[in-house]
């Protein structure tokens, strides 16, 4: 018997992209049972695009802006499928992903989720390619080894205790995979480029990078039972992270823009000290 698949797309002001994301799901090589788009308090332009795509199979849920984790949780909670296809509103899967992912879940009881390699796209061009490795808990403790867009068992989401809705700044996908693999599930990766990630200005990943250490400290504290016996590894990890951050600061200080800004500000600071 063919498994029932529910696709979930959280959407916040992604009117320019949502129709392509929906089309990529509906164009999969396996028919889905339902597609739920959770409108997370979007603007009127996005709502007008959502009205166009609503059909018997495509359901739109509206909520006040609560963040992507709350939107995903709302959609998954409403879903009837045993398998959940997660996709961001501004990205898209290749048609063959779903069939291959279903086959992996059907043939491997320990596999809780399946993702893939992906293209990073900017201005309609592939600028980079990423090869996440997936794996078990040890593969996720110090790095995120899978993107959130994936096919997962709904039971994984239940076992993990849902997405953490307090993580509004980002990295909630990494924390989710830690929670999933902590329960004994494995994340499998299809070693093919079957997903396009569109690198937009002001993306959540870029914003999260600005609070990198603070968010990671929250994750490590939340899962301190995992890290308590690995103090030296944790110390080394943060030392390395601080070194990288310092190198980035030094690189920025050496740029022409930084030097030009400093030369302009230097006399102003001098005058401020006088007056």
What would the average pLDDT be, to the nearest integer? 88
* Helix content estimate: 40-55%
Look at the structure and name the CATH superfamily of the largest domain. Spore Coat Polysaccharide Biosynthesis Protein SpsA, Chain A
Count up the helices.
Answer: 12
Number of domains: 2
Short descriptors:
275 residues; alpha/beta; 9-stranded mixed beta sheet; 9 strands; 46% helix; disordered C terminus; Glyco_trans_2-like; Nucleotide-diphossugar_trans
How would you describe the overall organization of this protein?
This is Glycosyltransferase. Keywords: Transferase. Residues 6-132 form the Glycosyltransferase 2-like domain. The protein is 46% helix and 22% strand. It has helices at residues 18-26, 44-53, 68-78, 97-107, 137-140, 154-160, 172-182, 204-210, 212-222, 224-227, 231-253, 256-274; strands spanning 5-11, 34-40, 58-63, 83-86, 92-93, 111-122, 125-130, 150-153, 186-198. Helix 2 (44-53) links the parallel strand 2 (34-40) and strand 3 (58-63). The termini are far apart. The model is unreliable at 270-275 (pLDDT under 50). Strands 1, 2, 3, 4, 5, 6, 7, 8 and 9 form a 9-stranded mixed beta sheet that branches. The protein has 2 domains: 5-228, Spore Coat Polysaccharide Biosynthesis Protein SpsA, Chain A (Alpha-Beta Complex); 232-274. The radius of gyration is 21 Å and the shape is globular. It is built from 12 helices and 9 strands. The protein is α/β, with parallel strands linked by helices and 275 residues long.
């Amino acid at each position: 018997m063919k498994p029932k698949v529910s696709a979930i797309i959280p959407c916040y002001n992604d009117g320019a992209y949502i129709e392509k994301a929906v089309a990529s799901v509906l164009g999969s090589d396996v028919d889905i049972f339902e597609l739920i788009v959770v409108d997370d308090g979007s603007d009127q332009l996005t709502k007008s695009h959502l009205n166009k795509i609503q059909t018997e199979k495509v359901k739109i849920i509206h909520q006040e802006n609560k963040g992507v984790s709350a939107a995903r949780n709302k959609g998954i909670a409403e879903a009837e499928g045993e398998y959940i296809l997660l996709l961001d509103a501004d990205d898209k899967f290749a048609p063959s992903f779903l069939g291959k992912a279903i086959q992996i879940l059907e043939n491997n009881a320990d596999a809780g989720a399946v993702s893939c390699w992906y293209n990073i796209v900017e201005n309609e061009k592939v600028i980079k390619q990423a090869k996440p490795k997936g794996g078990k808990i040890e593969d996720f403790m110090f790095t995120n080894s899978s993107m959130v867009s994936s096919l997962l068992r709904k039971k994984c989401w239940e076992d993990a205790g849902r997405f953490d809705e307090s993580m509004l700044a980002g990295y909630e996908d990494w924390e989710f995979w830690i929670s999933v693999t902590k329960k004994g599930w494995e994340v499998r990766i299809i070693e093919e480029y079957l997903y396009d990630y569109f690198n937009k200005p002001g993306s959540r990943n870029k914003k999260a990078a600005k609070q990198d250490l603070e968010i990671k400290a929250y994750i490590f504290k939340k899962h301190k039972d995992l890290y308590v016996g690995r103090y030296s590894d944790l110390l080394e990890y943060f030392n390395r992270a601080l070194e990288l951050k310092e190198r980035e600061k030094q690189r920025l200080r050496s740029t022409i823009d930084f030097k030009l800004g400093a030369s302009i500000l230097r006399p102003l600071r001098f005058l401020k000290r006088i007056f």
